[in-house]
Amino acid sequence: MELYQRFLTEKTDANGMLESVDFHAPESFNFGFDVVDYYGTEEPDRRAMIWVGSDGEEERIFTFGDMMKLSARAANYFKALGITKGDRVLLVLRRHWEFWPTIVALHKIGAITIPATDQLKEKDFVYRFDAAGVKAIVCTTSGTVIDEAEGACERCPQVTIKVSVGEKKEGWHHFGSEWEAFSDIYPRPSDGSAPMRDELMLMYFTSGTTAYPKIAAHEHTYALAHFLTAKWWHNVRKDGIHFTVAETGWGKAVWGKLYGQWLCGACVFTYDFERFDQEKLLGMIEKYRITTFCAPPTIYRFMIKADLSKHDLSSLEYITTAGEAVNPEVFNQMKTATGLTLMEGFGQTETTLTIANLVGMTPKPGSMGKPTPIYKLRIVSPDGSNTPMGEAGEICVDISEGRPYGLFREYYGDPENTKSVMHDGLYHTGDTAYYDEDGYLFFVGRTDDIIKSSGYRIGPFEIESVLMEHPAVLECAVTGVPDPTRGQVVKATIVLTAGYEASDELAKEIQHFVKELTAPYKYPRVVEFVKELPKTISGKIRRTELRK
């Protein structure tokens, strides 16, 4: 029996495609004890992670036996510092190997982990410390982020425990020189204090493209729901090596570098790079014989522009993508360049994998795939009815019979915002899509991004997809701007590829290009060329700022 079969039952059809997943985890389920320590005891020599430092020279291989002991040592250390069950702990650890034993240790203690990016500034830390009631922070000394955090700590007295990872910093505990003194045995508590399945385990601050970030709070069952992410989307296998390109401050890291992969007993690969370099990344795939790979479309765009013939990518068996909708151009060029079909997936900070092209499916270029068996989805019009085929509506999760595994419990400390998205028996994602005759879903945009022009409802993504096919367009964002006659008209804000210069002639050429490839009413009547697009710290385009 595979480990995951202790906690769930999967059902497949006659063709071997996934039909349903039924969870039956015990009330005491805890990822640290029931997954990491299980493998650490039963298969201690099984590889859990290959970690490579930023220079590409330093390499460490961690087995599950290592992770069991290291997380136990970290748990004993953190408890000695005063971290207890229910405490909120902020982690800013980039791609350092210390993230893995640290997060597993906090799960074992029952503390609530809040991963965060090293791009935060002092005011961002202050907001997060106050909003989540953070008691402790574990922070890298790489770069200047710890100085930003220190400034925030001086303004937030509730943060009483500060731990640095890397160099020693005055006024902070030092992880590297202190934790080794502690025992590497940490059994599950038997006094009733052990963290339980339905208690909070993990929090993520949302991207905050239109307002202050909200705090999506997840229970311990969230880890189990990523079984589907790993086995049926990433297609990991025990003797393979999976590589998801994500920094630990973002939710995609636990999607692809922790929960589902380790639940399936697979090894993850982590490259702790300082700056992204597609040649180095391709070199890692070649050197370590990566078998399954996941990255956002932006990474694939860089890969396509590189000379792939210089690298032996024959070990790659499966490639996936998420984080933003995939332009058909990226899909087609990756197929041409590698022979592999790019399998897209969709989810949110509030969910696990919600829509996807799962193993065995034949994807359609530009489609996110179909609803995954964990979630019962509806595509809903503004009046609450289901939309007909081909008509855009809001993607909603049916919660009338209870929340499925993987869906967040609440926006922590924010009942008003929680109620605004969970009502009428639905969780409202705020994203829109339409489905075709085969049930495949196509992303349209955020509900507040829809452009209403002369009676037409226009989604920005389909126009952006066409624009990205023009060689002059490096990045773009489509928004609506007021128009006295049409209500709104389509505007394209464009960052040009090197070698192209902004001009009225180029704008007209691009407008004509869009008219030729999609319905004429969708073409951008306004074109603006800019040096860069405004983005959130997670890299998402701030369309609200463009609309202003």
Automatic annotation (TrEMBL):
Residues 42-411 form the AMP-dependent synthetase/ligase domain. Gene3D superfamilies: 3.30.300.30, N-terminal domain of ligase-like. One of its GO terms (molecular function) is fatty-acyl-CoA synthase activity. The keyword Transmembrane helix does not apply. GO terms for biological process: acyl-CoA metabolic process; fatty acid biosynthetic process. Keywords: ATP-binding, Ligase, Nucleotide-binding. InterPro entries: AMP-bd_C, AMP-bd_C_sf, AMP-dep_synth/lig_dom, ANL_N_sf, Mitochondrial_ACSM. Residues 462-540 form the AMP-binding enzyme C-terminal domain. It comes from the Bacteria. Belongs to the ATP-dependent AMP-binding enzyme family. PANTHER family: ACYL-COA SYNTHETASE MEDIUM CHAIN FAMILY MEMBER 3, ACYL-COENZYME A SYNTHETASE. This is AMP-binding protein. It comes from Candidatus Limadaptatus stercoripullorum.
